[in-house]
Specification:
The complex is a heterodimer of chains A (294) and B (550). Chain A has 294 residues and is mainly alpha-helical. Chain A has a two-stranded antiparallel sheet with strand order 1-2. In chain A, a hairpin with a 3-residue loop joins strand 1 and strand 2. In chain A, helix 4 packs antiparallel against helix 10, helix 8 crosses helix 10 and helix 10 runs antiparallel to helix 13. Chain A is globular. The two termini of chain A are 44 Å apart. In chain A, 38% of the residues are buried. The mean pLDDT of chain A is 91. Chain B is α+β, with helices and mostly antiparallel strands. Chain B is 43% helix and 10% strand. The longest helix of chain B is centred in the C-terminal third of the chain and has 19 residues. Classes of the chains: A mainly alpha (294), B alpha+beta (550). Chains A and B meet through helix 12 of A and helix 6, helix 21 and helix 22 of B.
């Protein structure tokens, strides 16, 4: 009987589909239905208090694709990702490597470096205002005393740079934690052998740790890239997207359009266009990763 | 026909009612028993809210004055024991102002108030998400006046009118007839009052009276600009000269260079109000009241020649303040003036009020105030003509005029109104507008001094911290002049106003950030406004825009 039950589980019967059902329901309810709803909104005109007031075909898409503000927000987001993620990767990897080597103070450092990760992004953004303001800012004033005047909040460059610095401060520890887990998994025999062959620790890191920790590191980079492409709270709390819209990321623009001004039609179209763009980036990323692993 | 006996009996009932010995309901019932119709009696009881029936104070209501006898009787029953109301407020000084009164109302009525504070960036979203989703989690919302149009998008508006509550003397006494007309308009829609008195915003010019009256400064100014230092400046040209004159040198003698003007221009932080106010006399005049749209077509006027010239003029002020002020929040702008480093600031009445606190201000007793400067030429965007004027000064009600409205979805509307009316009672309203940290400005006649109002300077000197007498007189005189100016800038209250203003905000900010030229920025604003109008429906918007002038 027991053998028969196992066979039915392995080769057919409703039970295995029944086991899948919760997951299917979950995906259908929380992924497909919202996506269908967003697609429907993207072809509609929506007014708060009245709901959908009519179907407008591709008007919302045309509006989005011809909007300078939309493409600027994409540009700002891409700049943000291009600078924030690689810097976080390098700093996080180096920190993990040093801690894994057992550098002095590693245990204390491990505790401290994780703390920004548990702070709300929006709080970090507002905290950034107190760092970068010219009125007694913790970063702006010492730099100014050294003769370095950075227009942190009043220019696009300063605003994005400030937001990226805050992002690095918060998220480097994320890369650190994941890479450290990857490095810890490398067998000590391999390290011992490599130390004998290599001239210094940097060679060990480059030729042993980096390749062996690469699968884990790519996951960390992928997660950070996806998260960074959706970045909202830090730059928005810091600059509100200004001056003008020069530091407005895609998420901030979509938030303002959809949530603040209840333009669900245009906001949904924006979301769909962005989903397609990001999907291409992520697919390329996976392709590269697969090639590297094989 | 009533007998003499009935007349005497009715007289007795009236006396009892006037003394507060019987309620309005009892008055109507007993009057009806004497043969008078309930409608007539209800009409007769309406004047009960007039001053004749008011008591100065009552032990049951230590936080209210004046107070009706009905209110005193009502409070004795602790009427809202077990009732909890939820109010959403702006996370800012005005929210703190509201919170201050919560324990007092709770003590008097037995009710409870939960206050949720929401930052300005998300306030509109939170209010209308609660309403449009049908959740109705909140009984009242603190709203900026530019949200009003959105409340009236559905056929059945999201908020309720106050007539019934106002007519009921058991609620805390306040008199809407005390409003300065321009202010009353902001609390009303189609002639009905929807908002309960709280704030009364307008922008005026505040300046350092001491620096302006210093002989040495006057001489220097005359030598440089060839005319007497005007205190206050009457035209934008004079204002530019003054801002320029006080910039880049240590006129306050503290060892640091100072500035001519303080502005705040961070996007999403109400900075665009500076532009709205300063640009008004370039467009609005005795010959044209329209600033935002052509009322016949709903075509935007925002990129007219007058607006463009105004923006070009506005940008010039940037040279007379710290460069970073384009990323400053409102508080940062005020701080520069309160610290004594700016000679002028065109802003709300919070500034002179905050100036009274020596802990945060170095300028108490040095506050000059005046309506904002005007122009000698204005563009009429409807006719497309420039016209010369001797002086075209324009009043305004720009700002939030933050106050609460009651949700249609609320099941506790009466208790909610009672709490809001409590804060509108004269004693509390005066506290609010004389105390800096409440963020509340005066909009009622009893808050102003004679001949325009019935207030007195002693009330302002009794505030905590106490007002400097000259500051109070200067401030109220200028503020009233702004609110009661014969030529007023319109206030945009149609649906989507927040979105229209956001587009203006980001485009003006882009000009200040030197990313785009004024004409291009205002053209972009106009194009964005056209799309917003089309989405809401041009005809609907047109009707509401025209109604907003009613």
């Amino acid at each position: 009987m027991a053998a028969l039950r196992v066979e039915r589980l392995e080769h057919g019967g409703f039970f295995k589909y029944a086991l899948l059902l919760p997951a299917v329901i979950w995906v259908f309810a929380f992924t497909f239905l919202p996506l269908i709803s967003v697609i429907r909104f993207s072809f509609s005109s929506y007014v708060m208090g009245e709901g959908i007031t009519g179907f407008v075909g591709f008007d919302n898409y045309v509006d989005v694709l011809t909007s300078g503000q939309f493409w600027q927000s994409i540009f700002v987001t891409v700049v943000y990702v291009i600078f924030a993620v690689p810097i976080e990767l390098v700093l996080g990897f180096l920190a993990a490597w040093l801690v894994n080597l057992g550098a002095p103070g590693s245990r204390t450092f491990r505790t401290i470096i994780g703390s920004p990760l548990f702070t709300l992004e929006v709080a970090i953004g507002y905290l950034g205002v107190t760092f970068f303001t010219d009125q007694g800012g913790l970063i702006a004033v010492p730099l100014a005393a050294l003769g370095i005047h950075v227009p942190w909040m009043s220019t696009a460059f300063g605003g994005i740079a400030g937001a990226i610095l805050l992002d690095i401060w918060r998220w480097t520890s994320f890369i650190f934690i994941i890479v450290l887990a990857g490095l810890s998994g490398i067998s000590s025999e391999l390290y011992d052998a490599a130390v004998l062959d290599a001239k210094n620790h940097w060679q060990v890191m480059w030729h042993l740790a980096v390749p062996l920790a690469w699968p884990v590191t790519t996951i960390a980079v992928l997660l950070r890239t996806v998260e960074c492409l959706k970045t909202f709270a830090i730059p928005f709390a810091l600059t509100s997207g200004g001056p003008g819209t020069s530091t407005q990321t895609f998420s901030a623009m979509d938030y303002l359009t959809t949530i603040q001004f209840f333009d669900f039609g245009k906001g949904s179209a924006m979301g769909i266009v962005y989903l397609i763009l990001v999907s291409v980036v992520i697919a390329t990323f996976f392709q590269q990763m697969r090639r590297r692993l094989t | 026909m009533t007998s003499r006996y009935d007349d005497e009996k009715f007289g007795g009932v009236v006396r009892e009612y006037m003394r507060g010995q019987i309620s309005r309901r009892q008055f109507i019932v007993r009057g009806a028993q004497l043969g008078l119709s309930a409608a007539v009696l209800a009409k007769l009881t309406r004047p009960s809210r007039a001053a004749a029936n008011l008591l100065d104070s009552a032990p049951e209501a230590p936080y209210e004055s004046p107070i009706t006898p009905e209110r005193v009787a009502f409070l004795k029953t602790k009427p809202y024991k077990g009732t909890t109301i939820n109010v959403m407020v702006l996370k800012a000084t005005v929210g703190d102002g509201l919170k201050y009164h919560v324990p007092h109302w709770e003590e008097q009525t037995g009710g409870k108030v939960n206050v949720a504070e929401v930052p300005i960036e998300t306030l509109h979203t939170q209010i209308f998400s609660d309403l449009s989703s049908g959740l109705g989690k909140y009984d009242a919302y603190m709203t900026g006046c530019w949200f009003y149009g959105d409340f009236f998008v559905p056929k059945d508006p999201y908020i309720v009118p106050l007539e019934t509550f106002l007519a009921d003397p058991k609620h805390s006494y306040w008199d809407p007839d005390q409003w300065i007309p321009s202010m009353r308009k902001l609390y009303s829609w189609n002639g009905k009052v929807y908002g309960v008195l709280f704030d009364g915003d307008a922008q005026a010019l505040y300046y350092r009276k001491d620096a302006f009256s210093k002989k040495e400064n006057q001489d220097k100014f005359k030598a440089k600009y060839n005319y007497d230092l005007p205190a206050p400046p009457k035209t934008t040209k004079e204002y530019h000269d003054i801002a320029d004159f006080f910039t880049g040198w240590d006129w306050n003698g503290d060892g640091q260079n100072d500035w001519g003007i303080s502005l705040h221009a961070k996007v999403n932080e109400q900075g665009f109000f500076h532009f709205l106010t300063l640009s008004a006399p370039f467009v609005v005049s005795a010959d044209n009241k329209y600033y935002f749209f052509n009322p016949d077509t709903m075509k935007p006027l925002i990129n007219s020649e007058g607006h463009v010239r105004a923006l070009e003029d506005y940008v010039k002020f940037l040279a007379n303040g710290p460069k970073e002020e384009i990323a400053w929040t409102l508080g940062q702008g005020w701080n520069l003036f309160l610290d004594g480093h700016s000679a002028t600031e065109p802003t709300w009445g919070d500034l002179p009020t905050l100036a009274q606190d020596p802990k945060t201000s170095r300028v108490q007793g040095k506050m000059g105030a005046a309506p904002l400067p005007g122009t000698t030429e204005a563009f009429n965007p409807i006719t497309g003509q420039w016209k010369k004027y001797e002086l075209n000064q324009v009043g305004n009600t720009n700002g939030g005029t933050w106050h609460c409205v009651i949700s249609r979805l609320s099941k506790k509307q009466e208790a909610t109104y009672d709490f809001l009316a409590f804060m509108a009672n004269k004693k509390n309203a005066l506290f609010n507008c004389t105390t800096g940290w409440t963020g509340v400005q005066p909009g009622m006649k009893f808050e102003y001094f004679p001949p325009v109002g019935s207030g007195n300077v002693a009330e302002w000197k009794a505030a905590n911290p106490p007002w400097n007498e000259d500051d109070a007189i200067e401030y109220l005189k200028a503020y009233y002049a702004v609110l009661a100016a014969p030529v007023q800038q319109e206030y945009l209250r149609i649906p989507g106003a927040a979105e229209y203003w956001h587009e203006l905000d980001i485009n003006v900010s882009a000009v200040l950030g030197a990313q785009v030229q004024p004409k291009a920025a205002l053209d972009a604003t106009a194009a964005a406004w056209e799309k917003i109008t089309d989405r809401y429906g041009r005809d609907k918007q047109k009707a509401l825009y025209q109604a907003s002038f009613a």
